[in-house]
Amino acid sequence: ILLVEDEEKLRALLCEVLELEGYKVISCSHPKEGIEASQRHGGEIDLLLTDVVMPGMNGLAMAKMIKKIIPELRVVFMSGYTEHALSDGEIDAQFEYLQKPFTLLRLTQKLARVLG
């Protein structure tokens, strides 16, 4: 799982939970880092878990760039800002979405469902 979250404490918590669930996690704090990680790891990444609203580039723009590198990549967006995440309908139509705040159980269930 490629995890891109700009809030350090949340990123650390998510990384810990995902690793406890058995996932290998590549943790990034900025969309640019996420893009670079996707270029380095390519086909090893099954899922992108990312915040929507981040400084410099939003999660949707980053996800579209990464999907050019890894077309089969599954994407789950998380955000506390529903209006930003759903403003143009693209996230709803093409990707999975998880409204913040969410429980860790809800997160793990969503990931298990998306990854099959």
Summary tags:
6 helices; 116 residues; alpha/beta
Please describe what this structure looks like.
By secondary structure, the protein is of the alpha/beta class. 49% of the residues lie in helices and 18% in strands. The chain contains 6 helices and 5 strands. It has helices at residues 8-20, 31-41, 59-69, 82-86, 90-94, 104-115, and strands spanning 2-4, 26-28, 47-51, 74-79, 96-99. It has a 5-stranded parallel β-sheet, with helices on both faces. Helix 2 (31-41) packs parallel to helix 3. It starts with a strand and ends with a helix.
Shape: globular
Which structural class do the helices and strands define?
Answer: alpha/beta
The low-pLDDT segments are none
Beta-strand level of the residues, as a percent range? 15-25%
Rg over alpha carbons: 13 Å
Spatial order of the strands forming the largest sheet? 2-1-3-4-5
- Helix count from the secondary structure assignment: 6
Helix residue percentage: 40-55%
CA(first)-CA(last) distance: 14 Å
Average pLDDT over all residues: 89
Topology, please?
Elements: E1 2-4, H1 8-20, E2 26-28, H2 31-41, E3 47-51, H3 59-69, E4 74-79, H4 82-86, H5 90-94, E5 96-99, H6 104-115
Parallel strand pairs: 1-2, 1-3, 3-4, 4-5
In short:
With 116 residues, the chain is an alpha/beta fold.
